[in-house]
Design brief:
Strand order of the largest sheet: 9-10-11-12-13-14-15
Distance between the termini: 77 Å
Radius of gyration: 23 Å
Structural class: mainly beta
Shape: elongated
Order of helices and strands: HEEEEEEEEEEEEEEE
Largest sheet: 7 strands, antiparallel
Helix content: 10-25%
Number of helices: 1
Number of strands: 15
């Protein structure tokens, strides 16, 4: 009887823990930003998560479903992505959350308050200036690397040519034909090579 009683108690404890885990909402702080006026945190349960961006002073909440775990804060913008290929840009001044859909990859040019991103469906790469809202298209780019000083871009086009682009002047220079994939390419720290 003692063995049976211990077995029942142990079984109930495991059952209760399993059910408790399924019902508990997990909340994890992500960032406090814009001089403490905003915060972001992940919340969810049963592997379904939401990223909440909260304007503390005005008690306004913006939510992003199925977020990726990386979030970024630039001068006046909070940037995040989700698992369905969307990029979310929250503007602290206008308090508007803009969405760019169909994003395969993106990089932040934090010194310049710009985002470079590539469309998933057609591989066209764009440069978005967050301050002006201006979007510049670079055409089909398979792979690219932004220089550490954020002034240059080396990329591989659809014909596997390697090209160099000066982002200040938009001057483009051909480098090499039929080159291997650029995914492992690394810029020098001083952006010279």
């Amino acid at each position: 009887i003692l063995f049976f009683g211990c077995y029942l108690l142990f079984s109930f404890n495991i059952y209760a823990q399993d059910n408790y885990k399924d019902e508990v909402e997990l909340v994890t702080l992500d960032k406090v930003f814009f001089d403490g006026a905003f915060t972001s945190f992940f919340k969810g349960f049963n592997n379904q998560f939401t990223l909440s961006v909260v304007d503390i002073k005005n008690d306004v909440v913006f939510e992003i479903e199925n977020p990726q775990l990386n979030t970024f804060v630039l001068e006046n913008w909070f940037i995040s992505a989700n698992n369905t290929s969307s990029l979310f840009i929250f503007d602290k001044i206008t308090k508007v959350m803009d969405t760019i859909a169909d994003v395969r990859s993106f990089d932040l040019l934090s010194q310049k308050n710009q985002i470079i991103y590539t469309s998933k469906s057609d591989s066209i790469t764009y440069l978005l200036d967050l301050k002006s809202g201006k979007v510049q298209s670079f055409g089909v780019i398979m792979n690219y690397k932004v220089s550490p000083n954020e002034n240059e871009l080396i990329y591989q086009d659809a014909t596997h040519q390697i090209r160099y682009l000066d982002l200040k002047s938009n001057k483009e220079t051909f480098i090499k034909d039929n080159a291997p994939n650029l995914k492992n390419a690394i810029w020098s720290v001083n952006s010279k090579q």
